[in-house]
Design goal:
4-stranded antiparallel β-sheet
């Protein structure tokens, strides 16, 4: 038969390998300080860019290292946004800082105790209000809309009914969703108009993982699949093999599923693996998998961009030192990984971002002891550019 064609060349795995090769090639053109065992270039130099949250929470008070912690970093319209604050000890209000080619910019101050996560939806940057400083008749949502000049485009939507704490946000089929803690229980709200109005849904959840076609709602009693119209209980194993319910630090949609990281940012006790749950496994009540490369590592954070997954791990340098060694890896298929960063940093790496040329890492506090808060971390809140 003439005209035969090798159909495997366009398979998802081969596309992922091609993408991985192109990204690694780009890194090799700028990272010249060191190479890994395969001869690929690795960034090994960390340069401190600044510590902007010192302005609100200055050095000298150890507890100030908690709110300075860089809980999240998010690239949006060529600027990296920085989350900080402390809702456990009510350390708000919180300044939203961004970092761009012109340096740090304080874009606005929000009346909440903490900016924990940034999300993107409908071309906007969204921050759920972790703990409003106003009365709890409504919770807050902060939305950056480029069409407004005041506060650099940020606006506050004080519209989520009876919300004490809001951490999770998702976009599904044109609607916005949040999980809110009220005085009585946890409520899933849906908004058809980008946060202006909300309606409570008859489902139970403490958190959620956002897929392309549905949301997986999680709570102590199990998991529920919600497709935007109806919900269905499914017995998904999120944290194999033990399957103990754990806090999800961050999740990102990737390939045909979701990758996610668990644990506590201020703890350096491992392992904290990287998990991956496919959409088909979620629908059928199946199991997530621990990504083999990181099954014994302390994974700190995950970023997905342009069909590439970036993962940051860390380890302490010495039992009593604050210094940590951070490593960043990338993959297009969660199987073949390339290490592109290995640097020593003067504190715990909490979050990171990649702007297309450089990686940036944000540091946070470390809790010492097992009774109450005993925070340490002079460099908490500092941002480091990896070169």
């Amino acid at each position: 038969m003439s005209g035969s064609r090798d159909s495997s060349s366009g398979s998802p795995r081969n596309v992922a390998i091609i993408l991985l090769g192109l990204v690694v090639l780009a890194f090799n053109s700028v990272a010249e300080d060191a190479t890994d065992q395969n001869g690929r270039s690795v960034f090994v130099k960390a340069v401190k860019v600044g510590q902007p949250t010192l302005k609100r929470w200055p050095a000298g008070n150890p507890l100030n290292s908690m709110p300075r912690s860089v809980w999240d970093m998010r690239l949006f319209r060529n600027r990296i946004y920085i989350g900080s604050g402390d809702y456990w000890n009510n350390k708000g209000p919180v300044d939203i800082w961004s970092l761009g080619p012109d340096g740090f910019l304080r874009e606005c101050t929000v009346p909440d105790e903490m900016v924990y996560r940034f999300f993107e939806a409908d071309g906007k940057l969204v921050v759920p209000g972790a703990d409003p400083r106003e009365d709890w008749s409504f919770g807050n949502l902060y939305v950056k809309d480029g069409g407004r000049e005041q506060d650099h485009g940020w606006k506050k939507l004080r519209t989520i009914p009876k919300a004490l704490h809001v951490f999770d946000f998702a976009l599904l089929k044109g609607k916005w969703y949040v999980v809110a803690s009220t005085r009585k229980n946890q409520v899933v709200y849906a908004s058809p108009d980008q946060g202006r109005t909300w309606k409570a849904l008859p489902v139970e959840a403490g958190g959620m993982l956002g897929f392309n076609e549905f949301i997986l709602l999680t709570c102590l009693r199990g998991t529920t699949l919600f497709d935007g119209e109806k919900s269905e209980r499914v017995a998904v194993r999120l944290f194999p093999p033990e399957n103990r319910l754990q806090p999800v630090l961050k999740s990102e949609a990737f390939l045909d599923g979701v990758v996610y990281v668990t644990g506590c940012s201020w703890m350096m006790e491992g392992p904290q693996p990287l998990y991956y749950l496919t959409a088909s496994a979620a629908r059928s009540g199946g199991s997530a998998v621990r990504v083999e490369r990181f099954k014994d590592d302390l994974v700190r954070n995950v970023v997905v961009r342009d069909r590439v997954c970036y993962v940051m791990t860390a380890e302490r340098i010495g039992p009593d030192a604050e210094d940590c060694r951070a490593r960043i890896y990338l993959s297009g298929d969660l199987k073949d990984w390339a290490k592109v960063v290995e640097v020593a940093l003067p504190g715990l790496p909490y979050s990171f971002e990649y702007d297309g040329r450089n990686f940036y890492v944000g540091l946070g506090f470390r809790n010492v002891g097992d009774k109450g808060w005993n925070a340490v971390g002079e460099e908490s809140g500092s941002i480091w550019r990896i070169e």
